[in-house]
Amino acid sequence: AAGQAAQIVFGFRAEANGAYAQNVLVSYDSGEQCLTHLSGSASDIEVALERSIVAAPACYISLSSQRTVKLYNRSQIRIDFEWKALASAADESRARAERIMELSSAASDATGPAMRRRRRDIELDPMLFVSGSFAIEPARGEIYPGGYCELTVVFSPQSVGNLSATAYCEVAGRESRLPLMLQGSGLGPRAMWLYDTLDIGDVYVNAQHRYEVVLDNHGEVSAAFSLEPSETRLGSCFRFSPSSGQLVPNEQATVEVWFKCGFLGDFSETFVWTLDGSPSPLPLVLKGNVIGPSLHFSVRELDLATVSLGLQEGRACSIHNTSDIPVKFVLRFDDQELGEEPPPFRVSPSNGVLLPHRKLQLQVDFRSFRAWRYHHALIVDVEGVGEEMLSLPVKAHNRLPEIVPVESTVDFGECFLKHTYTKAIRIRNMSAGLKAAFELVSQDEPSRAIGYYSLEPNEGIVDEDGSVSVVLSFTAARKGPLSLPVYVRIQGTTSPSFHIDIVAHSVGPTVVVSAAAIDWGKTPVLQHVHRPLVLTNHSLIPAEFSGQMRKAASPFALSTPLGTLEPGETRELSLSVHLEETTKVADDLILQIKDAPEQVLSLAATGTGSTIWSERALDTLDFGERFASRMCSMEFTLENRGR
Question: 71 — alpha (psi -120 to 50), left (phi > 0) or beta?
Answer without folding.
Answer: beta
